[in-house]
Design goal:
The structure is a single chain. By secondary structure, this protein is an all-alpha fold. It is about 40% helix and about 0% strand. It is built from six helices and no strands. It is elongated and about 70 Å long. The model has no long low-confidence stretch (mean pLDDT about 75).
Length: about 150
């Protein structure tokens, strides 16, 4: 599950009890960081010790006497494993969710977005073999808008 620490992925009781992280919470968590403006795509990747300390101090965490691995672990735990902005918020991660029509978007706690993309692609590839006439033409328009290909 995406909102569970990787070390506990096999603990089903923990995973099912853990609260999910909404798209708004994920966006808010990363926008509240002081580093996100410097590295838009992955604000928590490849931070120096100075940047890690600055980020953790910004969030009210103790940083004195800690080495880089411990600082990285603290930040990862604090951010619940969230390391980058969701794909739906690219290229402008600070855009209001309502402006992107994502205000009510439900984030699955079970599968990441790229898995859904694969399922949708498979579905759109298979459906034309099961419809005819106007439904086929409408499906071709949907496939073109979703997959970026012409099918008619």
């Amino acid at each position: 599950m995406c909102h569970s620490p990787a070390s506990q992925f096999d603990d089903l009781a923990f995973c099912f009890k853990a609260d999910g992280v909404s798209l708004a919470q994920r966006q808010s968590l990363l926008l509240s960081e002081c580093m996100w403006k410097e590295q838009k795509q992955k604000p928590l990747e490849k931070l120096s010790v100075v940047q890690l300390r600055k980020e953790l101090k910004f969030r009210g965490m103790e940083v004195n006497g800690k080495l880089k691995p411990e600082l990285e672990r603290d930040l990862a735990n604090l951010c619940k494993g969230i390391a980058n902005f969701p794909a739906l918020l690219q290229p402008c991660p600070d855009t209001a969710l309502e402006c992107l029509n994502l205000g009510d978007y439900e984030v699955s706690g079970v599968e990441p977005l790229h898995d859904f993309k694969g399922h949708m692609s498979n579905l759109l590839e298979e459906l034309p073999f099961h419809v005819v006439g106007k439904a086929y033409e409408e499906l071709a328009v949907i496939k073109k808008s979703v997959l970026g290909k012409s099918y008619v």
